[in-house]
Structures are given as structure tokens and as C-alpha cells.
Amino acid sequence: MWFVPGRSYPTKHSGVMRIELFYSIFNNIYHKIDHFLNMNDPQWERDVTDIHSDWMMECQRLVDSGYYIDMDTAIMNTFCTYASHSKGEFIAEAFAEYHHNPNPREYALRVGKAVEDAFKRLRSKKREIGE
Q: What percent of the residues of the chain are helix, what percent strand, and what percent coil, each to the nearest 5?
């Protein structure tokens, strides 16, 4: 996450405050995209459930192997802690990283590709029904 939720910042003109606003706007957009795709593309839910499950299983494997001491540490080091709150937060955080990080990590790349694939399916479906 790019800011500390609930923290008060000195002025509305500080760089940190602008980052908080930027993050908040885009995070909401990514949640809306997830909601839209859940309603319109059945494959979307399967794809992101698989990606989220893969991430959680990777974290557990890293803990079981002794690479990390606990799940919280594995989660923090493989993606981000906030993404572990729910699958929806995982999707929003991954999609944000996909769009705003010049070097997105594996799970951000996978979610970004899943979003692109879902929109391709929807465009194709729209053409099939002649809209």
C-alpha cells in the first residue's frame, strides 16, 4: 500500500496527501472493475480465484520450508499485507501494481493479464450478439 490509512498528514498540498488521494481513487476503480467482471464474465471469478489461491499456497510453502517464520512475513515479502485481507483487496492491489509499477511482480502480472483476457472475452461476446 502506498500510504498509512487513517494517518493525518500536515497539509493537503504535501506529496504524501496527493499519493493518498491518487491511491484511493484508483483502488476504488479497481474494485469496480472486479465487481463488473464478476457480474459479466464467469471465467473471471475462476481465474482470479486460482491466482489468489496460488499466492496463498506459495506463502504457505515458504513458511513450511522455513524460508519465512510465519504467514504474515511471507505475505508481506511476496506481495503486500493489505492484499491478504480478502480476494477483492488482492485483486485491487495486484491490478494497481500492474498499472503503476514499471516492474510488476508475478501475481500483479497474472491479475493484469486476467483483466485483459476478461475484457477481450467481453468484446468478443458483444460482437457475437451484434451490439
A: 75, 0, 25
